[in-house]
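Re: beginner question about structure tokens

> Can someone show what the tokenized structure looks like for a real chain? I only ever see the sequence side.

Sure, here's an example I had lying around. Input first:
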Amino acid sequence: MTPGAASPNSPPATRSAIRVLPALLVNQIAAGEVVERPASVVKELIDNAIDAGAARITVELEQGGIELVRVTDDGRGVPVAEARLMLAPHATSKIREATDLDQIATMGFRGEALASICSVSRLTVRSRSIEEPAGWLLSAEGDTIGEPRPEGAPVGTSLTVRNLFFNTPARRKFLRTAGTEQTNALDIVRDLAMAHPAIAFKAVCDGRTVIDVPPDQTPAQRLLNVLGRELAPQMLEVHADEFDDARGLALWGMIGLPTIARATAKAQRIFINGRPIRDKTIQHAVREAYRGLIEPGRYPTAALMLQMSPEGVDVNVHPTKSEVRFRDSSLVHRVVFRAIKEALQRADLTPDERWSRPGSSPGASLYGSGVMPAGGGAFADAAAPVETSADTARRFVDYFNRVSTAGRSSGNRFDYDALREAVERERASEQAPTAPAPPSSPAAPDALLPAARPAERILQVHNSYLVTQDEHGLVIVDQHALHERVMFEALSARLAQGPLESQRLLTPATLSAPPSQVEKLGDLSAVFARLGVEAAPLGPDAVAIHAFPTFLFDRGVDPAEFIAGILERAEEEGFGAGDEEALHEALDMMACKAAVKAGDRLSDEELQELMRLREAVDRSSNCPHGRPTAIRLSIRDLEKRFGRG
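And the corresponding structure tokens:
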């Protein structure tokens, strides 16, 4: 560099003077935060219509809203004296002082939306106040606002936005195609229609009506009206109420069965006090409630309506009001998680064959038309109340202990005879000396299993699938997936009582691993301690295993292979220290190693026992990885396939 030459990063030689920006530029900068695309305009104008008490809202779009957005409502309207003021920046009728920000109960409140929209478009407002005999019309463009003039108009307001970003071409060129912009705008209409079932919504795109829902619907009717009534058989109702005076939370919503989980989270709709939001706390609660019921990489279908005191949520944290901050996020997480989990526990989650085929779920876009079927039968509980968690935990701790003991003499397979002998010995030892010994029975031991209806005949097909029947039709069970779920629940219940029994190895098992995986040993130390694993680095690219869970060791599981699998998953998922997901992943792998495999021949007693366990275990419809353990071919489907229906 030439001596004395300015560095590329050095400040300019002369300092620019500080000055106040022109009003138009200020509003255009604000528009950059509030008005991202036509969908942003649609949202802000509908919010104002809802706040005005509208019973009917109509949205018209041309070229996806790029050329025209018009929102018409039958609300209270605006007095002519406030016509110009409604387009002024930071002018609003919804807040007066700073304390009002702590209890916002309206959809809009900032007073900047109309001014921002006006600064980047050609805007026309037609309105008539409910208190005035005639209406008015006002036109504005950029920073030029005309005077209102008399105009015939019904009570309400109609705002027309033309040529969005006409005076900021750099912004306009970043808009997507008309089809994409229309899709985004219609998503906004659907969201707000779901959140406000008492209001009629209509959307017209280039002269064609694409959304038309009537007023005064129930929340369930409105959701299915928007999402598509074909989803009704696959939706469950969820509700919770922990509202106490000015605090707490009330929840109502609908969630999809695991069979209609989607490839993206777009199928999740969350609303707080009628406002569509995105919230990581609630999304995490939904994901955790479905854990083990859907495959990794898929997302549950859900529409959740939360109601809480305005003091309990801060909506003033994002310019578009799409993100919020809860005063008590742990309460929100707990209520959402518990409500969804209980709804799933009450439901029969065995998928019908027509819903379990890849790509067979109807309503791929989650949107349709029509009305909700009469009767509301889609929300009836599909199963009897489940037993208490304490009963389940006790049952599967005992099951784990018995299988673990029996497995020491049977290798890596589900040995019914060894299990039965162990149970019979235990029963005999518990008998009083004077009591006669009970006769031995070839039936499956069920002292610790719930009372079950007489078992149906079970057919094992290709030593991999079990075929039986229930009151709905034919049921086909994946024996490995089902037993994997059983073993996962047994391991989880046993782990709740303390670390698993461990066995030290005479000679440490070693494995080679990339340094990035070896470094994960520190993060997994707490998980390994609970599982009975003792492992330490053996140089930068090797691991030594000094102790291994007795349960897995006795079942012939290779320690190096098992630990290598956990380290690989830890690196892929980025598990941190004490991460519950790491423990869940390890239990998944343990259950998979311990379960019967495809190709294992099971005796009649083993088949009966496995099906009894299906009745006892929680979430038996899916393995811990989310794959279904069974599918059902209903009587109706059978009749159709044989040409009888």
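Each token stands for a local structural state, so reading them left to right follows the chain. Residues 389-407 form the longest helix (19 residues).
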